[in-house]
Amino acid sequence: MNIENYFDKGTINTISSSINAQEIDFSKHPKFNGVSLKHLVTGKLTNNQISCHLVKVEPFCTLDIHVHESSFEIHEVISGDGTSCIGENKVNYKVGSVGVIPANTPHKVEAGANGIYILAKFTPALL
Fold first, then answer.
1. Of 8, 27, 69, 82, which one is least surrounded by beta carbons within 10 A?
2. Is residue 6 in some structural domain?
3. Is 15 helix (H, G, I), strand (E, B) or coil?
4. Residue 65, domain extent
5. What is the pLDDT of residues 92-114, one digit of tens each?
6. Which residues fall within 8 angstroms of residue 100, CB to CB, at 6 or more apart?
7. What positions does the domain Cupin type-2 occupy (predicted)?
């Protein structure tokens, strides 16, 4: 099984409950075709301190330029490959790459031939 499947089908454990990630559906990104999001940990679970989202970008699709005005974002590439622009810095994204994106920083991700899965974490929580 690929690592993204472990997150897609894993368990979110809290001090009071466990949530089966399979029960959380991917939703299409409202602006970008070929991009889907699975909201694994939302602000509801963390008093809006942090959130974690599994981001799937289909092969050769783009999570185009956008900013998060009040949230710091961390990308952890867990499967696939592509490129990312963080501000003016264009970098290769592959398994093990980590992107550090301050609030108000324009950024985008372009998936390669295999698509890309990213764990995106936000503080404060995005949702």
1. 69
2. no
3. coil
4. 31-123
5. 999 999 999 999 999 999 999 99
6. 74, 86
7. 54-111
49 in a structural domain: yes
Residue 73, in any domain of the structure? yes
- DSSP letters, 27-66, are EE-SS-TTEEEEEEE-HHHHTTS-EEEEEEE-TT-EEEEE
pLDDT tens sequence across 6-63? 888 899 999 999 999 999 999 999 999 999 999 999 999 999 999 999 999 999 999 9
CATH of the domain at 117: 2.60.120.10
- Confirm whether 20 is domain-assigned: no
Three-class SS of 62-124: EEEEECCCCCEEEEEEEEEEEEEEECCEEEEEECCCEEEECCCCCEEEEEEEEEEEEEEEEEC
